[in-house]
Amino acid sequence: MLLLRDLLAHNARVHSARTALSTEGEEISYGGLEPLVRRTAAALHGLGVRKGDRVAVLSQSSLRYVELLFAVPAAGGIFVPLNPLFIARELRQLLIHSRARVLLFASEFEERVNELFPALAGRTEAYCIDSSRNGYPLLPRKGAPEPPADIPSSDRDIALQVYTGERSGRPTGAMLSHRNLLAAAASAAVELGLSRKDVFLSCTPLPFIAGTGRLLRYLYVGGTIHLQDEFDPDGVLGTIERRKVTHVLLTPAMIARILSLPAAERYDLATLRTVLYGGSSIPLDLLRRAIRFFRCDMVQSYGQVESAGILSFLHPEDHSLDESSPYMRKLTSVGKEAVGVEIRVVDGEGRPIAPNQVGEIVARGENVFEGYFEDPESTAEVLREGWLHTGDVASVDEEGYLYIVDRMRDTLMVGGIPVTPREIESVLAEHPGVEEAAVVGRPDYALGEIPVAFLTLREGSRADAEEILAHCRSNMAPFKIPRAVSFLPRLPKNSAGKVLKAKLREGILAQRS
After folding, report:
1. Is 159 a member of any domain?
2. Whole domain around residue 32: which residue ranges?
3. Residue 453: closest CA among 488, 478, 408, 479
4. Which of 348, 220, 223, 333 is nearest to 274 (CA)?
5. Is residue 344 domain-resident?
6. What's the rounded mean pLDDT across residues 436-455?
7. Taking Cα atoms as reference points, which of 167, 213, 161, 224 lies closest to residue 191?
8. pTM (two decimals)
């Protein structure tokens, strides 16, 4: 049985002096990180955090964030990362749904936290993690040097609860155990051939599974992680050169911005061994340009929160630019199942289908999550007889390569962030002039998909697109705001009154062509 704190303790014993984490302003070794985590865990225990208590964290990527990622489970709590892009209204929903006992926040979010309280007073205690000058108590970093008595006793204990959007009209918190997270980390470490000599540049937000999961795989092997809290294309290339980075994770949108830099070729990227990409579909011409520019291994990963971010990998040997190569088609796939993961493509009855036929991707392995928090119905829908039903529609060829063609669930991937149209539609419907709202995804070169809205107005309403978008800006995170608003006399529906979103998408594609 291995827990997150055991991994950290091992690294502290085996290579204490090796740098674990760094930013532009500070760094810490494994020998320094492990006792700091123990002291913070003891401090959390002193604040009343007990086994199973949710501890929400609102912070950008930082050394403090990683410290808390380990300290909260070490105290017996469950780490609940909050999206730093969310507005106060969205954060309040998650804090209430998760029943967070404690909210830990960075001082830059003080204004947003002020909006949350006093509505959450008596329900959630708030502590600032980096300042005591804002009226909130500072999370103490001093406590008993030994771990608290009430600590996780099983690797099936929940360590992380990640919110993935909404199902059935309420927030959905996917619960990941120590076993899930470490199984995913071990699988990725094997697939990528990682070692303690590797230096990983993290420029995707840690509060997402893409950030947290990638972080753990490098800590698993005792590597070094350099954190950047904001993506800057020049900054990324400069950091790779200066820090001798070996691995970096980029979304297609990030790759597009790097390739658009006029002076990108002036950077020395000789130490870079692997560019990992994923989070959304990547245009084939953008991928070809990336292969030529980076001149290193390219690896695509496919997964979802419910699989701790790991399902399959498309390896460097599958990234051929030879038009005559039979592997050229593989560039459009998401690769083969990862080690420790079993994948099938099944029909509606759960039976495996023949190669090149279309069905749903299902998977099983120790990385598959434990279920949704207080949502047995949704859990039963996606976890059936030990198999995770991903909701992704795909085919698999004779060699085991997966080709995703659609999604069964009404979900958008906006720059790698899952967004459920229902969330946006609910906010749109709150506008007094809106009768009905439907949101669908429009293909986007950089972000993969962007939300667009179709509305019908109430009789007498004179609302225009700018008024609707202003309403959205006040009530949802920026990445959820529709990029376009169209007004229709009526929404297309079937005989049962269900909106035919396929027709709306067809109209978008017809306009683009």
Report:
1. no
2. 4-153
3. 488
4. 223
5. yes
6. 90
7. 213
8. 0.90
